[in-house]
Every structure is written in C-alpha cells, then in structure tokens.
Design goal:
By secondary structure, the chain is of the alpha/beta class. It has 2 domains: about 170 residues, Aspartate Aminotransferase, domain 1 (Alpha-Beta Complex); about 270 residues, Aspartate Aminotransferase, domain 2. Helices cover about 40% and strands about 15% of the residues. The strands form 3 sheets. It has a 7-stranded mixed sheet, with helices on both faces. It has a 4-stranded mixed sheet with strand order 1-2-3-13. Strand 2 and strand 3 form a beta hairpin. The chain binds 4'-deoxy-4'-aminopyridoxal-5'-phosphate.
Length: about 450
C-alpha cells in the first residue's frame, strides 16, 4: 500500500469504509485527476458519482459562481426569491423539460426525491384522496441516502441493512432484466398484483429511474412496460415520479431520459448534472395538474431546506445550462453515445466475466457474471466490483461500480459515465483502460474460482 493513502486511524474524518485507505485528490483538469501523491488518473465517471458533466475546471461556471457570490451568495427562499432562481427555473422549463411547468429547487438528489414524494402525496391530499400514500417501485434501485428514499428500494440487504424499522413499507417489483423478465410482462403482472394487494386507492406514486444509473447501470425496462405503466396510471390515478438525478441534464443524449420513452412523468427530479459538481443543487419539476391541485387546495407546499434556491447555487446551475447549450453538449452525447457503447462492447468481446454492455448516451453499464456459466451472480464475498475499481485505479482509470449481489437481483456492475466534454481520444483511452482492467480481473476471478 502506498504511504500516501489516508488510513482510518490517521484521520479525523469518519470514513465510509474503515478498511479502505484513500488517496487524496489535489486538482482536476477536464477528465484528468491529480492526487497529492502525484498520480494522474483518467476520470471515466464524472467525478466518480456521474456529476461532473462539464469536466473539472470549467472556468465559465466557476466565474458565474464567484460573480454571484460577490453580489449575494445566500438568502433563505422563505424571505426572498432571487433572479438566478427565477431565470434557472424558466430556462429549465423552456430548454430542458418543456413538458413540465414548475420547479422546486433543493441541494441533493435525496432531497429532490423526498420533495417529489411529498409533492405526490400533497397532490392527492389536496384532491381529497388522503388515503393515497404507498409507493410502488422497482426493487433494484437507488434513490438516495435518507430514510424516505432508502424505503424506495427493495434492496433489503445492501440498502436497508439495520434500518428496516425506520422505513415505510412500500411495494417493489423485480427488475425486467434478461434474468427475470426480458419482455416486461412479468413486471406488469407484479405491478397489478402490488396494486391489488395495496388497494389501488392507497397508491400515491410509481417511482423509478427511466434509465438506471448506479443500481443497474444503463438499463431501462422494455417498451411494453412503459406502455403498461401509462395505462395503469390512467386507470388507477397514481402519479408517476421519475428520478432523473443522474440522467437529467443530458446524460443519456436528451435533456431528460423520459424524452426517449413513451411516457411523460407527472414529477421528475434532477440533481447531479444540474450543478455539474460546481454547486450542490437539485430540483423537482412537476406538470401543471400537480401544481393546479395544490393551487385549488391547501395553497401551500410547505417544505424547505436551508439551501433551496440559494442565489449562488442557482447562478451555477444557470451557467451549467448555458455551457451545455453553447457547447451543443447534449447533442454530442446523443451523437457519440452509440459509438462509445459499440467501442466498449468490441473491446470487451471474449471476456467471459462480461455478460452485457448496455446504456444510452454517456451512461454505460457493464454487467459481470460468473465466467463458469456466463450467467450466475458472482459469489458475494469475492467483492469483484471493488476489485475492478482497485485494478482500474492501478491502470490510471476512475470508474464506478456497484456490488449488490446479496440482494439477488443482479451481480457486480461497472459504470462508465464520462464528462460530455471528453475528447474522442480520451474516450478511447477510457475504453482501452477499462478493457485492460477487466481482462486482469477476469484472470483474477477465474484463478480463484478454479481453486475454490
Ligand atoms: N437518485 C439517483 C439515481 C442517484 O444515483 C443518487 C446518487 N447516487 C441519488 C438519487 C441521491 O443523490 P444525492 O446523493 O445527491 O442525495
């Protein structure tokens, strides 16, 4: 282990994993990261959490934040609105989400999703349907770290853990993946069963990512599922909330991923790419009928976090939208995405650890399986996703990975989610380094499985 790694017993910060000493980041430039130990790493996951869509060091965005801070950085939205907030809300609706009508800002993805949950509930209560509170959502999901958002996944082992008692008993569907439900028919049957079990008049919302990020990278249910969901919304009166914390702001090649699907959500959230790593800003957007019900009812949606709509965060958000428009970056993601996926699939061809390379735009996922049969989930204790991250780092590459094997819905997965500003050469380097990483991990896994 390099001496430059920060160990749990040598720091006052409380690390996430006490057994994983961490390198320390010093600076970033575009898609390149520099550690305090002098390492140079290629960032293939936009700051590691699919956030930094404009790369590191985007000067115009930094300048916009500084300029606003010089005027006024912070003011609580209960006392004043502000010009950056007003302009950003209008621009989001005009440019990014014309199907939506109102925007409520927050700081994190978890907060935006809680806002969506509460907005859905308030909508029903104000229409006189106070029994509606339950949520139905896919089990293999991630919607945030708070108790309300953890309850939205059915990953009881890896996400609920010891917090089960704090969580609302929502209902979950198995994912419509090749393993369980390639056509989407089984998920619709499960949805009908869940509606029947709960009583459709108690269901507030169906909550999901239109194209999954960390939980099932690059996956979207088959077309049939979306049509079926739209029919059931019409029949039963629940609302559809899409979590676009990752996919919003261009990640999949359209401003919002729902724009590629045959269904428009009633409420949609956006997070990471809205501040692109230059400010913690997120939002819940809703269609007019959601607002109208509250306008005709209680006339209040009384939820406020301290930083909601703060001038500096909104000025950063504005500069991000402007940079995406000026650089035609959403178009670039759309035009370049399919070729990137093909390049990755070609580079991984023949690797027996890899079952599937999928995704849209600059959100690609690689699903790993047991090389002995090409389909089983790898043994949980092998922690292959962690191994991928470690080996990638040795190859000078930062990728994301997910290890939710214990839940039984899917195995180890790798996420490639570059900045939209990455050049063709940089994208090629990412693919090449990831292919070398996965070849090395395949040998490591195979030798261990043979010995076992
Ligand atoms: N939804 C999705 C799809 C996410 O990927 C994340 C973050 N990984 C969140 C919600 C939560 O966002 P935050 O960590 O900013 O609260």
């Amino acid at each position: 282990m390099s001496p430059e790694r920060i160990r749990a017993d040598a720091t006052s910060t409380f690390p996430r994993n006490l057994d994983h000493p961490e390198p320390s980041i010093e600076r970033g430039e575009g898609v390149w990261l520099y550690t305090t130990a002098g390492e140079k790493i290629l960032d293939a996951c936009s700051g590691g959490a699919m956030v930094s869509t404009l790369g590191h060091g985007a000067q115009a965005v930094i300048d916009a934040g500084v300029e606003q801070a010089e005027k006024i950085a912070y003011m609580y939205m209960d006392h004043f609105t502000n010009e950056p907030q007003e302009r950003l809300a209008s621009l989001l609706i005009e440019v990014a989400a014309p199907q939506m009508s109102y925007v409520r800002f927050a700081s994190s993805g978890s907060e935006a999703n809680e806002t969506a949950l509460r907005l859905a509930r308030q909508f029903h209560v104000d229409r006189g349907e106070a029994d509606r509170w339950r949520v139905i959502s896919p089990a293999q999901a991630y919607h945030g770290a708070t108790m309300a958002t953890i309850a939205l996944t059915g990953r009881t082992r890896t996400m609920h853990g010891p917090y089960g008692q704090y969580l609302s008993p929502h209902l979950h569907l198995k994912p419509s993946t090749w393993r369980f439900d390639p056509s989407g028919a089984a998920a619709l049957e499960e949805l009908d069963r869940a509606l029947g079990e709960a009583g459709p008049e108690t269901v507030s919302a169906f909550f999901c990512e239109p194209i999954s990020a960390a939980a099932l990278p690059g996956y979207s249910p088959p077309e049939k599922f979306w049509h079926g969901l739209a029919e059931r919304r019409e029949a039963h009166g629940f609302v559809v909330c899409f979590d676009e914390v990752v996919t919003g702001m261009g990640r999949t090649g359209t401003w919002f991923a729902y724009q590629q699907l045959p269904i428009v959500p009633d409420i949609v959230t956006v997070g990471k790419g809205l501040g692109a790593g230059y400010a913690p800003i997120s939002a819940a957007l809703c269609r007019r009928h959601i607002y109208d019900a509250i306008a005709a009812g209680s006339r209040a949606f009384d939820l406020g976090h301290t930083w909601d709509g703060a001038p500096q965060s909104c000025a950063v958000g504005l500069a991000v939208v402007e940079a995406l428009v000026a650089g035609r970056l959403v178009e670039r993601v759309r035009e370049r995405g399919a070729a990137l996926r093909d390049q990755l699939a070609a580079a991984l061809e023949g690797n027996r650890l890899v079952h599937d390379v999928r995704g849209r735009g600059f959100l690609l996922g690689v699903e790993l399986v047991d090389p002995r049969d090409g389909r089983s989930i790898l043994p949980d204790e092998m922690q292959v996703a962690d191994r991928v991250e470690e080996v990638a780092f040795e190859h000078g590459l930062l990728v994301g990975s997910t290890h939710s094997n214990a839940d039984g819905f899917t195995g180890d997965e790798v996420v490639l989610a570059p900045a939209f500003t990455a050049t063709d050469d940089e994208l090629e380097m990412m693919v090449e380094r990831l292919a070398r990483t996965l070849a090395e991990v395949e040998s490591w896994v195979s030798s261990r499985l043979v010995r076992a």
